[in-house]
Amino acid sequence: MDKYKLSERDICTKFITPAIENAGWKRNQFFEEVNLTAGRVMVRGKLAARIQNPEAKGGPKRADYVLYAKPNIPIAVIEAKQAKFSVGHGMQQALSYAEMLDVPFAISSNGNSFLLHDRTGVTHSVETELSLDDFPCPDQLWPVYERWKGITSTTNTLLEQPYHSDGSGKGPRYYQRVAINRTIEAIAKGQNRILLVMATGTGKTYTAFQIIWRLWKSKAKKRILFLADRNILVDQTMQQDFAPFGKYMHKVTDRAAKKNYEIYLALYQAVTGKEEWKQTYLQFPSDFFDLVVIDECHRGSAKEDSAWHEVLKYFDSATHIGLTATPKEKKAVDGEIINPEFNYKYFGEPIYTYSLKQGIEDGFLAPYKVIRIASNVDALGYTPEKGKIDKYGHEVEQRHYNTKDFDRNLILERRTRFVAKKIWEYLSNTDPMAKTIVFCDEQDHAERMRQELVKLIPAAASNRRYVMRITGDDKEGKAQLSYFIDNDEPYPVIATTSKLLTTGVDAKTCKLIVLDQNINSMTEFKQIIGRGTRLREDYNKLYFTIMDFKGATRLFSDPDFDGEPVVIYEPEVDEPVVPTEEDDNLDQDPEPNNDDRPKDRTEVREPRKKFYLDDVAVGLAAERSQYLDIDGKLITEDYQRHLKEQIEQSLKESFGTLSGFLRRWNESERKQAIIDELAEHGIDLAVLQQAIPNGKEMDAFDLIAHLAFDQKPLTRKERANQVKKRDAFGKYGEQAKAVLEALIEKFAENGVLDIENPTILELPPFDRLGSKTQIRRGIFGGIEQYQQAIKELEIELYRDDLTA
């Protein structure tokens, strides 16, 4: 047997696996071809697809072997290569996987020997070459792991407690396992304040559930409290991730502390309040809970002067685990820290961080496109003339207004209309049923935006739930929130909001996020972007689009955006201080009684002056599109040019040459067949129409011929007029000519597909000439004769081009 001719898989089967087994590793202690990542999703225009090639940058990652010292604790990664390579050829790959999995040993092998790399620093040797017979046994590696992690054999029972399994074979992803194991290890070592930072959409709540499950099952923690500050978060958690707790689980409501459960979930507002009778948490003994998990802990719960923080102080003896996507930033003005970061002070440094950038790179989070649109008033600002009176008779304050004023101090109604028009233009040209969240500055702004969208969208006239305002002050709107986030509920399609949907709400199929809100806080920005990061391939959700009208996406250029959690934010000189969670326009999600919300501020503010103008002209100043490249950088592009190039390539692949396309078009009995073929390649007419100016006025033929082969396009109306001038239907009777002339008008309106659709004969003006059957058989003499007339009409429409 010539070992050098064997494949990598043969090397594993014939040499590496036997060596592992001979060293004492049982079959349930090592796993082969372990999938780690899914493969990054790449977006180009309207098309998106995963990178399938494991060798490509961003492709799926798979470890040849992962070895487990204990049921839940991976300890080594082995990367195999063919015998023609050196023993260390796979080491860099093995080290990368070992770092991902948080394991101490990376091993490379070519079937002749092993090269073992010790990442712990505990032993004297970093890399050691071992023969196939000298592969280490579990008892040799485990003591090194214990010393590396600082754990003892007395904690093994806790570490070995299995994950919850629902029988489907689904388990935590690699990064969730690392977060869970690090938390369990920290608690095993006696650490009582723990912070986990995981990007929105990466399964923080599921990770928390597995942590709680293992601690609860091992009886290390017998009573657990899960705290959140949105009612929807508590309900989602109970119904989804925490459902396996079943009868042992209880939601604290009605200001009553029931003490016969083990897993408690509570809304801060339901257990706190100014009056003592509202402070439900005091009904529990201070040592009642062994573990408190604080969801979205970057918000008010961890702030020292917050009433909510009193809950944490009261249950001080319990272990506290904070969950967040973005630790709260420090705010600095002229270098002076004015609001120290409290999460790090309270919880300590995060024991694990999984960033948005890493989630996109691994293929677990959806990448995004960015479309930045600036109106003329946003680009130049607006200064009212002296003595300007608004629509309610108030004299407008004389000063220069810019983007940060619009929709707060100065309401330009035509600007709201402009934004709504752009939103609907995008949706109507892509997917009118795409779940969309429009973030507005205030609740009043969200209502005005709802009204403008309703006026524009035809479907909204017949279905009041197509567009809904979902804000904290609107009970009917909030009642629709559960439908909006339900993957299988089509309505509401569009939700206008200000703060309520900023965090926590799990809208997995959201495809469009509209930013018409002034955002200066990196924390808030990350949370908003997180509304779109969920991937749902089964619902054709592979990426999402951010449409920005107020320059919020400038924060993408911050080097901290996709890297480590934000710690310091220094606003520009002309920017306001970042608003706090207690801002006067915050959409809270309180219990039914509004008095239940915590009130930490005693300051009374005067109502802000607002002026409403409905006569200021607003139009487009600039529009540009950006997308993420393979390195995770935002690339600015000419959206039309990029789309045109992409479509041109796809069309040429389909038709080859211009003559090939003309022949196909001419010979095709139904042009719909060609359109369907393009759709199978991910290109539809709406995409073609976006690619060139005035594309909506052109027929499919002209769009394809121009985009793929640079032919001069004609509009549908121009083609229809050419046929009319030629008087091409002189051989037909008056009624038949009337039908064909009406079909030409339909072509001018909508294109060739209307002509080919026989149901068009059931609509005006054809219905005045008789039924569909009467027209085809009575006027034209039969179905075949009618179809021949349609064929001749199409030849006339494209005559000059098809003979070119």
TrEMBL record:
Keyword tRNA-binding found: no
Keywords: ATP-binding, Helicase, Hydrolase, Nucleotide-binding
Residue ranges of the region described as Disordered: 572-605
Entries under PROSITE patterns matching the protein: HELICASE_ATP_BIND_1
Entry keyword Flavoprotein: no
Source taxon at top rank: Bacteria
Regions of compositional bias (Basic and acidic residues) in chain numbering: 594-605
Annotated Helicase ATP-binding domain residues: 185-345
GO BP terms in the entry: DNA restriction-modification system
Membrane-spanning parts: none
Xref: InterPro entries: EcoEI_R_C_dom, Helicase/UvrB_N, Helicase_ATP-bd, Helicase_Restrict-Modif_Enz, P-loop_NTPase, Restrct_endonuc_type1_HsdR_N
Start-end of Acidic residues biased regions: 572-593
GO annotation, cellular component aspect: cytosol
GO molecular function: ATP binding; DNA binding; helicase activity; type I site-specific deoxyribonuclease activity
PANTHER family: ATP-DEPENDENT HELICASE IRC3-RELATED, TYPE I RESTRICTION ENZYME ECOKI R PROTEIN
Descriptive protein name: DEAD/DEAH box helicase family protein
